[in-house]
Structures are given as C-alpha cells and as structure tokens.
Design a protein that fits this description.
One of its GO terms (biological process) is coenzyme A biosynthetic process. This is Phosphopantetheine adenylyltransferase. Keywords: ATP-binding, Coenzyme A biosynthesis, Cytoplasm, Magnesium, Nucleotide-binding, Nucleotidyltransferase, Transferase. It catalyses: (R)-4'-phosphopantetheine + ATP + H(+) = 3'-dephospho-CoA + diphosphate. About 45% of the residues lie in helices and about 20% in strands. The chain has 6 helices and 5 strands, in the order βαβαβαβαβαα.
C-alpha cells in the first residue's frame, strides 16, 4: 500500500473532507492531511487553528496525520516519500480545476500520481465559502461540519474574528 497526501485549505474542515479521508484510509497505508498556508489568501482560521481542528477530527484514524505546509505540495510529497496526491471532487467544475492542477503537478514531478475521489452524494453541496457565510448569519451548519468546527465558526463570528 502507498503513502498519500490530501492537501487543502480546510477553512473550515467539512464532513465532505472527512468523507474523503475516511474512504482513503482503506486505500492508502498512510495519509498526510496537509493544511495549505498561502500568504496570498485570506483565511477565517489561522494555520494553527486549522491544523488543530483537523488533528482533533482525524484522531480516530491511526494512519492519518496532519501537517501545515507553505510550499508546493509536490515538494511536500517528495520529502515524505508519498507517491499519490488525493483530490476530492464534487462536480464537473471541481474536476476541471483539479485536472488542470494535476497536470501542473505532474509536470513538476512525474513520479507523483493524482487520484480523484468523488464525494459521497450527501456531501455534494458542501462548499467552505457557503458554510462560512451561513455561519456568519447565525444559520445552522450542523449537517455540514462536525460540532467542534461549528462551535469554532460561531465563536469566530461572535467575537468579530472574521
């Protein structure tokens, strides 16, 4: 079995992200969930907050670890000896974007394959931006994110941290 990397902003982590991770745990020997850190992006949660949320959420899986990274993901994969990048897709638009990214990554390191996992149907509409907007308006996000994430979201918006 193979070592894989599942990278994303995870701002916030959703049930869709966890669905992909759960399914990947039976396919790959080891999964590194990599929280992207990009100084050009504005995140609701800091890198350390996103890492802590993900660490809590994946703690039940012994073959999953969480890390932050601020460089090319293929460089992270090369450093740890991973040969697969996992990408979750919900629809054709996601696939188109992810396919282009896979081609770019393949050009950077042809030794690393990209594997696309489609989300289960119940997570089809989960989009982090919509979840953040709903939470900012006090809406119920409990069907979209774990309770710890919902509480962190509401806490951010109540404290004016957003």
């Amino acid at each position: 079995m193979v070592k894989a990397v599942f990278a994303g902003s995870f701002d916030p982590p959703t049930f869709g992200h966890l669905n992909i991770i759960r399914r990947a745990t039976s396919i790959f020997r080891e999964i590194h969930v990599v929280v992207a850190v990009n100084s050009e992006k504005k995140y609701l949660f800091s890198a350390s907050e996103r890492v802590a949320l993900m660490q809590d959420l994946v703690s039940g899986w012994t073959n999953v670890s969480v890390h932050a990274w601020d460089k090319l993901i293929v460089e992270y994969a090369r450093r740890i000896g991973a040969s697969v990048l996992i990408r979750g897709v919900r629809n054709l638009a996601d696939f188109s974007y992810e396919f282009d990214l896979a081609m770019l990554n393949r050009g950077l390191n042809p030794e690393i394959e990209t594997v696309f996992l489609s989300t289960d149907p119940e997570y089809f509409v989960l989009r982090s931006s919509a979840i953040k907007e709903l939470a900012s308006l006090g809406g119920d996000v409990s069907a979209m994110v774990p309770e710890s994430v919902a509480q962190a979201l509401y806490g951010k918006y109540r404290s004016g941290g957003a």
